[in-house]
Amino acid sequence: MxxxxxxxxxxxxxxxxxxxxxxxxxxxxxIAHFGASDAWSMQRIGLWPEEDEQRxxxxxxxxxxxxxxxxxxxxxxSLWRFNLGAGSAEQGDSSYINRDTRTxxxxxxxxxxDWSRQAGQLRFLKMAKERGVPYILAFLNSPPxxxxxxxxxxxxxxxxxxNLRPECYDDFAHFMAEAVAGLEREHGIHIDxxxxxxxxxxxxxxxxxxxxxxxxxxxxxxxVVRHTSKALDDHGLKTQIVFNESSDLRCLxxxxxxxxxxxxxxxxxxxxxxxxxxxxxxxxxxxLILGHSYWTNTPVEKMKKTRQELRSLxxxxxxxxxxxxxxxxSNDEEIGGGGGYDFSMKTALYVARVIHHDLxxxxxxxxxxxxxxxxxxxxxxxRVFDRQHRAQDSRLLWALGNYSRFVRPGAVRLDVSSRQxxxxxxxxxxxxxxxxxSLVCVAINxxxxxxxxxxxxxxxxxxxxxxxxxxxxxxxxLCPVGTTTGTATLPARSITTFVMQQS
Length: 503
Hints:
globular
């Protein structure tokens, strides 16, 4: 690497720094987007009378603008996940679901549609589009209550099969197609992706009051996808179907905490020998599987291996992978589990490490956090205080922005080489090339000591990087912190994004 006109202090820094070489000719996966979901908070926040607070939240999540000093106003999410409700809210207390996690349904008991429902969520859908979010995904946790076997949106009282009456597969599919068509016709919102099942596998049976949800066997999921594909055709829609939002990466690869009917998801859907469940040639689908990174982030020494195994299996079946949901769970003991909100870098760095592993070792093409907004639990990018109708940002929000703001749809991940073995408690580096030619490098320093770093490119080019940092230091929330020609010091417990524009 050629170090250009560095002052003495920078030359000394470079001499002691680990060099990370961005291999611009060695490309990996294409990045589709980074996202988060509106469940369940937006159905309340979107009805707040304080429009300034709503706009502030929308700017934090979606904006690509900057203020006069160059400070980003938001993290520029490129995917917004809209929870298409099943109707537990209309059932009230008889839904057997907690009040805060019930959802409305556009479909009414008499078969007509009320497009004024889900008003709070619709408001944020529109604010997302106004701020340039390019992709919208609609996901369901349950079929509408009118079609379920127990007439509920929760699986209470049932086994591990899909809570859908056998004669209602077509009804369910046409509801989803009509919802997609109606959102565009009535509200001007185009749905790019439709996810009809959520966490149907693993140990989840979706019993009890937590939220809408239902398990499903692979055969049942395949039948839902096939019926939905036909319904989208019948409505003349181009929306793509994505599936199956596995609850654990291990469910994608084998049988994990369930029976064979709900395991080996990748092979079930993409091996032609699995004739009853094969979806590899179904219209409105891609060779793409969605899964959630819950439960596989600890112990840390197994995190990388799990994702490498997943990548190998995906390659075998010529399939791609989206990590479509994550928050902090009870087994994330390194940061104290999910209870109690954390505004600091403790959770932010923990999640950034997962993002790095999902992108670099599982070749995830999309990465989404669970809830955009939440309460006193580590499941929201933004902490909301419903009674006061106010919101507070977190380092977690801005840490995701170190990726989502700068790695845009269509970017290609590039290999990064170094003589140093990657340390999940130290420095982790990933790199990307956007469609406009700009290079982006995200460097995580998990350690409690500052770390010198040198960036190089192969082939070598003249470097001028703009740096954006998230740390616990005051004001460092995706803060522009200067430029470098290749050397920098990563402060302790920080995330720095380096951006080099096309020359």
